[in-house]
Structures are given as C-alpha cells and as structure tokens.
Amino acid sequence: MRPSESFPKVKYLYGPVATIFASTKTGSWRILRPVIQQEKCTRCGTCAKHCPLDVIEVDRGNKEKEVVIDFEYCKGCGICANVCPRKCIEMVPERGVK
Amino acid sequence: MIQLKLYGLGGQGVVTAGKLLATAVAIYENKYAQTVPAYGHERRGAPVYADVILGEEPILVKSFVYKPDYVMVFDLAVLEKGVDVTEGAHANTCFVVNAHQLNPEFPFINKFGSVYYVDATKIALEVLGIDIPNSAMLGAFAATGVVSIDAVCAALEETFKGKAGERNVEAARRCYEAVRKFS
Amino acid sequence: MDGNAAAAEAMRLARVQVISAYPITPQSPIAEKLADFVAEGSLKAKYVRVESEHTAMSVAIGAQLTGVRACTATSSVGLALMHEVLGVASGCRLPIVMAVVNRSLASPWSLWCDHQDSMAERDSGWLQFYAEDPQEVLDYLLIAYRVAEDPRVLLPAMVCMDGFFVSHTPAVVLVPEQETVDSFLPPYNPANLYLDPDDPMFVNDLTPPSDYTEMRYQHKVAFEEAFKVITEVQEEFFRLFRRRYSFIETYKCDDADVVLVTLGSMSGTAKYVVNELRAKGYKVGVLKIVVFRPFPADQIRNALKHVPVIGVMDRSAGLGAEGGPVWIEVSRALSGLEPMPKVAGFVGGLGGRDLAPHVIEKAFRNLIDIKEGKIEMRQGSKWIDVREDAMKIREVKVNV
Known about the structure:
Strand order of the largest sheet of chain B: 2-3-1-4-5-6-7
Shape of chain B: globular
Order of helices and strands of chain A: EEHEEHEH
Oligomer: heterotrimer
Structural class of chain A: alpha+beta
Shape of chain A: elongated
Largest sheet of chain B: 7 strands, mixed
Number of strands of chain B: 7
Strand content of chain A: 15-25%
CATH architecture of chain A: 2-Layer Sandwich
Radius of gyration of chain A: 19 Å
Distance between the termini of chain A: 28 Å
Helix content of chain A: 10-25%
Structural class of chain B: alpha/beta
Largest interface: B-C, 19 and 28 residues
Number of helices of chain A: 3
Radius of gyration of chain B: 15 Å
CATH class of chain A: Alpha Beta
Strand order of the largest sheet of chain A: 2-5
Number of domains of chain A: 1
CATH class of chain B: Alpha Beta
Helix content of chain B: 25-40%
CATH topology of chain A: Alpha-Beta Plaits
C-alpha cells in the first residue's frame, strides 16, 4: 500500500485498478498443510525442485539444517508430498495444526 | 418457495452440494429446484457460496437468495474470514452447521430459528477419508424435513456412482443419524 | 441440467459433424461436454482444437462450406474476437448455429453476465434468440437450426443465454427423443454455397461496388423471410414437442397499464415480481423478447398498443447513446402509435450484478409513479442499480 501519511490529498481514479493488494499471499488458499518428518528426510531436494511456487528451502545433503517451507505463499497443492521419494511429507488439514 | 444459502470454503464441495440438493428435490421428489452458484476468483480455501431455491411450483425467479429460510455452514472458518452467515436471515431462519458443539458466541445462536449441528468433517474423514463434508452436510440437512434422506441418497448415488456413491451415501446417513437440534 | 449442458445436448441431438470451440468462462462446460460426447462415441463428430475464437469460427465456416453441420460456442471477449469472421459467416449465408453464453465485455474485466457481448454483434447479420432458462436453450437451438438452414433464410444464428444465471443454473429439462429430433431436423443439405471439387466455386471473392449493395439487400430480404419461417418452425416445433414459442412472450399484459420489456433470465424474475405486485392490486405485466434479430417490431407494437406506460430493461450500458439498445429499438417500434405510450428505459444488471426481485420492483415502482403522474419520465435510460458513490470507489492519496 502507498504510504498515506505522506500523501495528504485525496484523488479518485476511474476504471479497474487496485491499490490494496489483499490476496497476493497465496498461503491463504491452503486447506492442507505439508508437514515434513525432518528426521526421516534425507535432504535430497526433490520437493524443492518440484515446488511450483519455489517456497521450499533445502540445504542439500545437510541433515543439520531443517527443511523450511514459506507458509505465507505455500498453497498446499501437495506436489511435494507426492514426489517425495522417502514419503516423509504428510498433508494434514489446516484446521488440525492451527 | 423455500430459499437456502450454503456457505463454505473452496474445495469443500459447496457448489456441488447445491446441485445435489437441487437434483434430490427436482428428480427424486418431483418438485422444483434451482441453484445459482456464485462463481468468483475460484481458489481453494476462499469463501464460497451457493444459493438454492426449492418449490412446489415452477420457480420463476432467476436470481440469488437474499432472505434465506435455511442456511448451511460447511465450515465455521468462514466466520473468521469475515463472512456474515446471518445476512438476510429472519426470525425463523434455520441453521445447519458443521460443528461438533455449539458456542453461545456463534452469531446464529438464539436470534433466529433452530440450529442443527453435527461434526460433518469428522464423519467425512472417517467414511470418505477426505475433508469434503458436502454429502455429510446434505444428510444433516435432511433432518430438517425439507428433503427426505432417501432423495438425498438417491442423488448422491446418481452423481458419484459405484463405490464412491456408496461411501457418500454412508456419510450422509451417518450425519442424518448423528445431527442434533438446538432450538 | 444447466444451460450449458442443455446447449451441448441440443447440439448432439442436431448431430453436428464438426466442432471447433475455444474454452472461455462461462462457456467452457459446453466445449468440455461436446468433447466428452465425441470421446465416448455418443456423438460422431470431428473435434478440432483451435487456438482462438477467431479460428474457431473460421474452422466452422470452412467445415460448413464442405456441407456438414458445424458448431461452436463462445462468450464475451471470445465473441468480440470472432467479430470479423461473424460477418464472413453471415455474408456467405452459412447457417452456422452458435451458443453464446452472455458475459460482459472488458474492461473492467468481468466473468459475469450482461448482454453487451451479443448486443455488440446485433448488426452482424446473424439471427439472435435469447433464452430464459435451460429448457429454452435446448429448444431454441433446435428451432435455430431449422430456421437458419431454411433455403429462404440461410443465415447463421446465435442462441444467447445469461452467463451463470442460465448457463450454470440446473433446472429440469425435457430432452426429446432422437427420432423425433431427426424428423424435425433432417441432415444438412448445402443449398447455396459449398466446396466440392467436382463442382468448383470461388467463395468469398472480392465484390465490387456494383454488386455489394445487392448482396446486402439479399441479406436484408433473408431477415424479412425469417419472420415467416420462424413462425412456421415454431408451429411445427409445438406439434412435435408440445412447447409453444413465439417472437415475444407476453405475461399478464392483456389488462396491464404498466409493462416491463425484458430479455433472457431477468424475464423469470420479472414475472415473479408481477405476481407480487398484482397481489397488491397493480395491473402490471412483462413482455419478453425471444427473437431479437429479426427484431419483432410488429409483434411488440401489437402486444403493447393498449399500454400507456412501458419500461425496457437493458443489460447493456449503451455507451454514448441516449440509452440501452433494446430501449432504443422498442421505442422506435412503438413510435407510430396513437396515442404514443411513455417508454422509459432502464440500464441494470451489468457485469454480473443481480437483477434481483427488489431491483426489478424498483423499475416497476418507477413506471407506476410515471403512470400515476407522480414523476415525469426522464429522457434516456435510467441506471437503476448504480451505487451513489459511483464516482468515488477507487480512492488514492496524492501529494499534489
């Protein structure tokens, strides 16, 4: 949003335009949330490679560092869970983990 | 003319539920029914509505529902998303809600007609293995007597066919048995 | 079934042989359902995948020229993209029948219903039918094939249905038997222009000024002939299917002193409002226009000659004109009457806004007030459902 304090005057625009970007955080679309079993995961990076939103961060081969998913943007599509060769990503209902 | 509004989240089968209910009433009870789905920027998790009108005579109105006699809430999360499920409701508007218990703070408690409630998500997860409570909610709605549970089940069988049909019928019947009424 | 399913069903019953459709909301289910029919073998047709609506119509034109019944369907900007080739289809006198699922034109981008897409094509030389519900979609499509292919007409036809309010609204539809449809609609017989290597024609060649006017005149005569043919076909349709249709449908107009003229799905809601208002003692009625091209001016004049106050609801903005296109044409049709009725225009239901009972009632109340002399009729169409803050809905803060 534009910083309104520094722009004191009001003007009206005509036609289709948005100046408030309410639904750009795609995480709000999620019904199912991917939950990773960090101990079982080998950090192979397959999930990150397939993620259509590129929101999974994996330090390949480094078991010390946890796999991190950016839930502000993860839509919960479940592709990561499908492609995981170790089957260590589970899709759980959002309501259950809140 | 009986008017209904169905509220839920994208991915829960709300629009399909509207069609199923219309099929149950129009095809299996030989009355008249129509449903106008409110399509928008479809995406999973966003609030979704469907409007259904049922009647003994042909339905002339081709528009949305503004004064519902029945309201079905598939997911109470719509309240958090700013949806007013009591909009247009009158003193006798009956609510059918997906909830395992009622909270006095729910906006539809004690201000309108009776409230039916059941944990349709739990039943859907147990019977179907997925969080799509639409068939279960239709079973719960049959408890109001507006449509018979047999007509609902016939519509489910016709729409889903085979094994999926049987499981959806089971979800509907279990919800029909389990639903509780608060007036 | 909903309006989209009814359209696909009608095209299957018509045994279309070539399908070229490009999906667009809210028409997509028609394209999908026809593809299903071809895949499952219940419709023996060639499904041509195309990359745009312009090509969809071009393929339909080419296919129809080879002597088969071609079919397509579209909406909104898809219809606008077809604009150039719509004129080719009609000018070459090819009886292509198309379902149009009414959706507003961009911009503002909208997925939802109004009539600005098909109204923009009202002078493209196509026949136009507007359906109120899914049953009418199916029936008008079957009627449209017969009328379009009649050697006295040879014009393409659009059957229009309101996006979502008809296309996605399931209702009970009586689907006729295939044999009955076959007897109503025999196989397509290319009677005019066609492509046949044994009998060559050069179709759509450059036409000099010395002939253009005459070919347009032929086109105009075809619309005049269409009046007779539509009446005959509707009569035969009634004989076979027991559902009676006409150019217009009047609802409680006989003793009415106020009538609202409607198009498409709003007609049903208007009938409902008429019943409510009649219960309160108001003599009101509805006149639904079914066939918009050819425009049934005589029928409308005849049905409304005794009515002192008439309203016309346009689901189009009519930008830059005095009012909406339906209002302009209805006003013109009534202009010779003595005494001249008051004809008030309304614009509403744009971009998916619901013409709900309370909006239609507002229009009727306005007409009743004019009838009772409480208010003066204003010139041009009145915007019936515009918000008061219309000019201030996008506020930004600026520094200058």
